[in-house]
């Protein structure tokens, strides 16, 4: 736990938004695209971006100190890292744009604490009315899962077999598990399934079956009863209360064959490092109206929905992967 013991410690925390804003501005301006391997003076870059010369120079100097831009006597270039990872539509650029979007909601945290309601509209409404933003969000989740997610394909409970990917999004984990030898059944809402169809188009036919269904209205998640060997529930439970989560897990349970497995991949409120889990919990309250459950509650949710032998897979924190068997 961090201990703040001096005014300057607190001030350092308070200005933490500034580097993020500088990186976000660079992304919005297309600065990492404008910089190339040949050093360019700030005036030339400002002309190219139709930006104010003096302010752009200040941003470039800040990015030099943040380690994302290099300066020589002849001008500015991307660092090798920025060149490789920060150009438009790179994975990290998607994450930068996602965080810029959500930071506006975080600035209204006090409203969330008072009202008990999230800032954003419910996901199904956003999917219909803000499709550009929700598509960007799903691609950012895909990038985050590939960069920071656990290698679930290493789990013998998920590979080989016929595996249900519950709320699988674009299909990041379905892709990894299918490539490792499993046959996947990905269930998600119709708008997301259409995006997943494009994202997974290069995989062999039949390796990922796509099913458009509402997990909360269709029994057994919209698939045949006891028709899969295992199910993956990744980053779903934090969007719901304990009671609603148990309802979802019971539906998942009905889809798994006797003796099959469930794997829950999520973040728990009591797993760090540091403030990670508790800040993730706040994030859910701001963004979705969900909560990050603690490890004991996640375990209890599984036990209450017909699973047994719950154990945590040995992936490093903050990754929290729980494996359980369907009670027979
Ligand atoms: C946070 S994303 C997780 C995506 C993916 N499982 C992962 O780990 O990256 C939650 C997913 O659940 C889906 N979802 C939310 N409510 C749903 C519902 N009622 N029926 C089907 N899918 C739903 C969303 O569309 C989204 O793809």
**Number of structural units classed as domains:** 2
- Kindly report the spatial arrangement of strands forming the biggest sheet: 5-4-3-6-7-9-8
Q: Radius of gyration from the CA trace?
A: 22 Å
Structural class: alpha/beta
**Contiguous helical run count:** 15
Helix content: 40-55%
**Overall morphology:** globular
CATH superfamily of the largest domain: Vaccinia Virus protein VP39
* Share of β-strand residues: 15-25%
The biggest sheet amounts to: 7 strands, mixed
Low-confidence stretches: none
Order of helices and strands: HHHHHEEHHHHHEHEHEEHEHHEE
Strand elements, count:
9
N-to-C terminal Cα separation, in Å? Answer: 42 Å
Pfam family, one: Methyltransf_2
GO molecular function: O-methyltransferase activity; protein dimerization activity
Keywords: Methyltransferase, S-adenosyl-L-methionine, Transferase
Protein name: O-methyltransferase domain-containing protein
Please tell me about this protein's structure:
Helix 4 crosses helix 5 and helix 7 (91-106) crosses helix 10 (131-148). The chain is α/β, with parallel strands linked by helices and 328 residues long. The strands form two sheets. It has a seven-stranded mixed β-sheet, with helices on both faces. It has a two-stranded antiparallel sheet with strand order 1-2. Strand 4 (183-188), helix 12 (190-199) and strand 5 form a beta-alpha-beta unit. The longest helix has 18 residues, at 131-148. It has 15 helices and nine strands. Bound molecules: S-adenosylmethionine.
């Amino acid at each position: 736990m961090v201990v703040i013991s001096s005014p300057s410690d607190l001030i350092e925390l308070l200005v933490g938004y500034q580097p993020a804003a500088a990186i976000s501005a660079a992304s919005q301006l297309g600065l990492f695209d404008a910089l190339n391997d040949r050093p360019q003076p700030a005036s030339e870059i400002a002309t190219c971006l139709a930006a104010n010369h003096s302010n752009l120079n200040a941003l470039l100097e800040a990015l030099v100190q943040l380690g994302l831009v290099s300066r020589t006597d002849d001008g500015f270039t991307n660092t090798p890292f920025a060149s490789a990872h920060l150009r438009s539509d790179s994975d990290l650029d998607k994450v930068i744009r996602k965080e810029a979007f959500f930071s506006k909601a975080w600035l209204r945290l006090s409203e969330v604490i008072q009202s008990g309601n999230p800032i954003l509209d419910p996901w199904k409404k956003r999917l219909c009315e803000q499709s550009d933003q929700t598509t960007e969000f799903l691609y950012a989740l895909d990038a985050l899962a590939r960069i920071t997610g656990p290698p679930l394909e290493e789990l013998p409970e998920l590979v080989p077999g016929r595996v249900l990917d519950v709320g699988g999004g674009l299909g990041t984990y379905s892709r990894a598990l299918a490539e490792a030898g499993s046959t996947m059944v990905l269930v998600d809402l119709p708008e997301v399934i259409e995006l997943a169809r494009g994202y997974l188009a290069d995989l062999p036919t039949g390796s990922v079956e796509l099913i458009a269904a509402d997990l909360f209205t269709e029994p057994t998640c919209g698939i045949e009863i006891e028709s899969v060997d295992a199910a993956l529930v990744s980053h779903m439970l934090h969007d719901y209360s304990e009671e609603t989560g148990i309802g979802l897990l019971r539906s998942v349970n009905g889809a798994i064959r006797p003796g099959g497995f469930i794997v829950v991949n999520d973040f728990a409120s009591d797993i760090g490092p540091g403030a990670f889990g508790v800040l993730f919990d706040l994030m859910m309250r701001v963004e979705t109206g969900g909560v990050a459950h603690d490890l004991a509650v996640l375990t209890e949710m599984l036990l209450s929905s017909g699973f047994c032998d719950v154990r945590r897979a040995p992936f490093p924190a903050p990754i929290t992967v729980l494996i359980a068997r369907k009670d027979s």
